[in-house]
Design goal:
The protein has helices at about 5-15, 30-40, 55-60, 85-95, 120, 150-160, 160-165, 170-185, 190-205, 225-240, 270-280, and strands at about 1-5, 25, 45-50, 70-75, 100-105, 130-135, 145, 220-225, 245, 255-260. By secondary structure, the protein is an alpha/beta fold. It has a 7-stranded mixed sheet with strand order 1-7-6-5-4-2-3, sandwiched between helices. A 3-stranded antiparallel sheet has the order 8-10-9.
């Protein structure tokens, strides 16, 4: 089911599937669209510590009986570049009979043998009940999507207000999306080269003493902490011809401001050399 944006897809799917009689278990670092969907659903929302399957298990075990349980997580987190423990989460969903919704927005087209995301990479895509994603990242188009069994899609199409009351996408968007999906499937070497290049960049930045957290993807955060220092570093890099946005409150928690480096297949090693050299000059 296609939506006008990934934001609308998350809000629409969550509110269509959960309500006041239900309980949602949400990762602490989930995207704002997931957080807003949980709030709008009116369900009891239990937030578990970031990527902490043990804490999720504790919350599931201690939760009160409800009509429906839903676990919601990003697969690849948009700021930290780290990956959710989907194998453990899918086991918990099975054990506690909870619906599992995974947002693959930043992983679609990058991870997995077919580029279907982290669930495919981890071998648990058949355990995901609801898959949400966006067309505006690796697919290079615009809009969002929800994928799942036909009965689920029919339900969401009739219940998601962000779908029912939004204008449909133009045909040209669908044509571009289909063409780019064919490229993703037929040219897996693109994502392989991307991940290799991002890995090389992470290694070099860590050697230079930059803190990158648990990133293991094309999203490479440089952890700064102070928002003013993050903005100053971003502005300095801009003078070197490099766009590295400063992420600060409210987009990041207080004390956790960062620079968000997003590596693409189009970034050459010479460009990454330029980035590391410019960063060294700021130390």
């Amino acid at each position: 089911l296609l939506f006008g944006s990934g934001y609308a897809a998350n809000v629409g799917a969550i509110t269509a599937l959960a309500g006041r009689e239900d309980t949602i278990f949400s990762d602490a670092h989930n995207h704002a669209s997931i957080i807003d969907g949980c709030r709008l659903a009116g369900a009891d929302v239990q937030v578990y510590r970031h990527a902490d399957a043990r804490h999720l298990s504790e919350l599931l075990r201690a939760s009160r009986p409800s009509r429906r349980r839903m676990i919601v997580t990003d697969s690849l987190f948009s700021m930290g570049g780290d990956v959710a423990p989907l194998a453990e989460i899918s086991e918990l969903a099975k054990q506690y009979e909870a619906m599992l919704l995974v947002d693959e927005a930043h992983a679609t087209g990058v991870f997995g043998a077919q580029g279907r995301g982290c669930a495919e990479q981890c071998g648990v895509q058949d355990c995901v009940d609801v898959k949400v994603g966006t067309l505006s990242k690796a697919i290079g188009s615009v809009g969002g999507f929800v994928a799942g069994p036909q009965m689920l899609i029919d339900w969401i199409a009739n219940r998601a207000r962000s779908y029912v009351f939004s204008t449909a996408q133009p045909d040209a968007v669908a044509a571009v999306t289909l063409m780019n999906l064919q490229i993703l499937q037929s040219q897996p070497e693109r994502r392989q080269a991307l991940l290799q290049r991002a890995g090389e960049l992470r290694s070099r930045l860590r050697q230079d003493g930059w803190r990158l957290g648990a990133s293991r993807s094309q999203i490479v955060p440089i952890l700064i902490g102070d928002p003013r220092q993050a903005v100053e570093l971003s502005d300095t890099l801009r003078t070197h011809g490099i766009l590295a946005p400063a992420i600060r409150p409210p987009s990041a928690p207080s004390g956790e401001s960062l620079l968000r480096i997003c590596v693409t297949h189009g970034h050459t090693r010479a460009m990454l050399d330029q980035l590391t050299a410019a960063l060294r000059a700021t130390r």
